[in-house]
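Weekly structure sync, notes
Attendees: PL (lead), two postdocs, one rotation student
Agenda item 3: pending single-chain targets
PL asked that the sequence for the first pending target be pasted directly into the notes so everyone works from the same version. It is reproduced below exactly as submitted, 513 residues in total.
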Amino acid sequence: MMMSSEQLFCTLPVQTFTRKKHGVARKLTFSAFSVGVEFYRLLKPDSTTIIPHVSNWDLLNTVIALYDVGLPDIGVENLRSTVCAQGAKTILLLRDHQDVLKEYQDNFWPKGPPKPSPTEPKNEEEYEGTFSAVFSDPESSEEEDDSDSDHKSKEKIIEVSLLSTRRRYRGCGAARYMLQLLKDVSLVGFYDAIVTHADSRAIELFASCDFSDDIILNSRFRDLAQDWTNTTTMSYFPPFSLGQASQLDTEDLEAEMTQWREKSMAAHEAQAIFMRRILQEIKALKKQVKSQKYEILKLTADLENERKEKKLLQKKILERPIIEIENTAALQLGEQKENKNGMPVTVQDIAVKEIEVEGQKLVLEEIVETALLWKDLEEVKTYVSKLHDTGVHQILYYCDRRSQLVEILNRGFSPEDVQQREYGNGIYFSASPAEAISMAHHVLVADVYIGKIQTNGEKSVSRRSPPSGFDSIQIRGRWSTEFVIFSHLQAIPICLLKYTKSDSPTANTAVSK
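Predicted structure, written out during the meeting:
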């Protein structure tokens, strides 16, 4: 209410209220004047009384009693602290005592003691307050509050804490009249909203006075919630014209509404377009994922095919020296191969018919082929496939005049055949049969996989493996070239050549297996 800082209360003109007859309730017309009171200041010592012959404390107790009858669930102490809170203002509708006295004389005293007004049947389950016997009629509650409160947005909010009307005066518009007074900026000053916490019986009343119970709209007033139970937050927003220096022109208002509508439509259109584009984006992404899944499957299949092809290629590369070993083995086993002239190749072709040793001429007497089978060469094939140059091999003659050559011919080379000589611990071969002939005039012929050769290597008696990056060592001598390998798996015996002196009467050439 609009009161100066010095005013303790203000009085408004008399207002007439009328209740039209409905149900069993009789028609009622009465007049009352409104008084705005701030009890927090009114109860101070030496304060002016509002009603003659009625103290301010008695007026306060009467108000508390009225609220207690109408709102019995709140409690007297809570009611008193609410009404007497600093800044709380209370609107009272007071009747002239002469009018009340005349009404009682006309309606009650000629007929006997005063009786309760038959406006509404009393609810047997309704709780009666402490002061329920003070008034001559039953009361009810449709109350709310009425105090300014600081809002977090710095808006000016009028909060209706309590609102009650005596039962016999209900239906006359007294509550609506008091709410209209609250809406009047000339009485309460400029404000941004009126907020109340209505119980279930008061919702219809506030709704008829343009209060809204919209949950989203009232969520901004969560910090104004009080300890009332079973209440609904409702709010009233004044028109824009209230509190402004000049009235808004209707055309300007319509123009603003049109502009707002256009902006709203544009915002809605933008949101709709955005959602459609999001939908299309989702569809495009799903299509892309499906396409990428297909590509992944295709690439996986291609990768698997490439792996198979690579494996086959590696197998071919590894099998190349093995094929050559097979060719050599076929030669060992007497299979027919072609020489440079297109003629079949046999051990006869690789055997030297005559040699000269220390001035003595020796002639080939017998050729003994190896007893090894192809299945005995599996370990050799595996080792040869790991050489630096798997395709280089040569027919050479084993250099060890003391070895049992026949035993080597039948079992193949072994670690026992390694000799420690000036170029290291290895197996030595010569390109000349005369340099490899044994004391028994025997020469062992072998297919040696020399691989990558280091020529003219340095002498080293302690060497046990080929130089780094090489598979064998080549030694160029005065009379012949020698080769050194360091693994018995690099050589395959082919045959044994037996020689005899040329002046021997029994000298002839034979091949045995």
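Discussion points:
- The chain has two domains: 9-236, 344-512.
- The longest strand covers residues 9-19.
Action: rotation student to compare against the earlier draft before next sync.
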